[in-house]
Write a structure and sequence with these properties.
single chain; about 425 residues; alpha/beta; 5-stranded parallel sheet; 12 helices; about 25% strand
């Protein structure tokens, strides 16, 4: 009986092994990126441009026909014989908008590989990094141009596609007037995922407002020139830059405060009730955002709003820190945390169980059980697993899961009932 099975005469793994000995960039199955340029964006961020190998391009386009702004990649970075994996937000990827690339990279810059690949926009991946640790410092200051790194494919749900599915529930062909306005709020290096998001939103003729808190001067930065270019090219784009270290700057911006508060949000020229809000930054920035939104909801003069609807439901968050349940940012008021109790978590694959009143990952570690993890911040997705049953609560959004099977991240979810994980 014919089964249709055709064994490979030569295994791809063997071809990859031989090819990697000839050139580390060659692979049929492993996505790889080669560092070809660096460019300082401002005093806090450095942009890195990589050439993608054929495996990366083939696999990326097999999964989807384009990248999504707000997604990230995992880079495996070898330092002194030890592989370190970190997640970095994508600034751009092929096909990449030329104006974004030109705003960040100087084609005549000395810190670029002098070959055709460095000018081949159809084969590049761009990320932005804040030098603040072993791996980031190595990538931005020490890694020789031409160094090859293993990479994951783009992933993450901090995207406009997620907005359409979860919040607007509108078809992509709707006109701009029928789509919800977009508000992007970022602090420091939290601006990195916003670059791709804003570029794609404007290409879809969406109404976009950017509120960016930073601590350095952007006067001579290509960053500032890029926002000015967008404001000129797109009449439905507005941006506000608040330098929190310069009182003369923030006192003239919006409500005159270096912190995000109710007055600041109230003065933005858009309807918050109709807007989708993307936020990325520190826990303090997000805490200020959530407090302000809760204050604006009570009371509400807008009769179109349901009485119990919260503006927090309009927020999609990407964050740098994982707040525990007693944080005023993660779950809000003390009334919300009162129903959090120690629950039993059962690991079906290991035939083990533990008790947890905190995140699933931390609870397992406190019980001496090691689970997979990466960033511990809800970004890298390495801790993701299947929940078989039970209810968990996301400490970033405050949302409760269903009782059934779904994919969750153990580093940002706490058990609200007894939970079974497929681990």
């Amino acid at each position: 009986m014919t089964t249709g099975y055709r064994p490979e005469i030569i295994q791809r793994a063997f071809v990859d092994f031989v090819g990697s000995r000839l050139h580390p960039f060659w692979s049929l199955t492993t996505p790889k990126l080669r560092l070809i340029a660096r460019q300082t964006i401002n005093e806090e961020l450095v942009a890195l441009k990589f050439e993608a190998n054929q495996a990366f391009k083939r696999l990326a386009f097999t999964i989807d026909d384009s990248w999504h702004g707000g997604q990230h990649i995992h880079l495996t970075v070898p330092i002194e014989g030890i592989n370190h994996q970190r997640s970095y937000s994508l600034v751009g990827m092929f096909p990449q908008p030329a104006d974004l690339h030109d705003a960040i990279f100087d084609n005549n810059a000395k810190n670029a590989v002098n070959d055709s690949a460095s000018n081949n926009l159809c084969a590049t991946v761009t990320i932005a990094i804040k030098p603040q640790g072993l791996v980031s410092d190595y990538l931005t200051q020490q890694a020789p141009l031409g160094t090859v790194f293993d990479s994951s494919l783009p992933s993450g749900d901090f995207t406009l596609a997620d907005t359409s599915a979860k919040l607007t529930k509108q078809k992509s062909e709707l006109s701009r007037s029928k789509q919800s306005p977009l508000l992007f709020i970022a602090g420091g290096s939290g601006i990195t995922p916003m670059l791709g998001l804003i570029t794609q939103a404007l290409a879809q003729s969406r109404t976009v407002t950017l509120l960016y808190y930073h601590r350095t001067s952007l006067a001579k930065s290509p960053f500032q020139a890029y926002w000015q270019h967008l404001a000129t090219a797109y009449p439905y784009f507005a941006y506000y830059m608040v330098n929190t270290a310069d009182p003369n700057n923030y006192s003239s911006q919006l409500a005159g405060s270096r912190h995000l508060d109710v007055d600041t949000l109230s003065l933005l020229p858009l309807s918050l009730a109709e807007s989708t809000i993307f936020a990325c930054g520190s826990s303090s920035l997000l805490a200020g955002l959530y407090r302000a939104l809760e204050t604006l909801n009570l009371p509400s003069d807008n009769q179109t709003l349901a009485p119990k609807r919260s503006l927090r439901d309009n927020v999609i968050v990407e964050r740098f820190g994982t707040a525990l349940p007693d944080s005023d940012m993660s779950l809000g008021t003390n009334e919300e945390t009162a129903d959090i109790a120690v629950q039993t978590v059962y690991l079906r694959g290991r035939q083990q169980q533990f008790s947890s009143g905190t995140t699933l990952l931390l609870g397992a570690e406190q019980a001496g059980i090691r689970l997979s993890y990466g960033c511990r911040q809800g970004i890298c997705q390495l801790c993701r697993c299947q929940k078989i049953s039970g209810v968990v609560k996301n400490i970033q959004t405050g949302k409760l899961s269903s009782h059934g099977v779904e994919s969750i991240q153990t580093c940002i979810n706490i058990p609200m009932t007894d939970v079974i994980l497929d681990v």
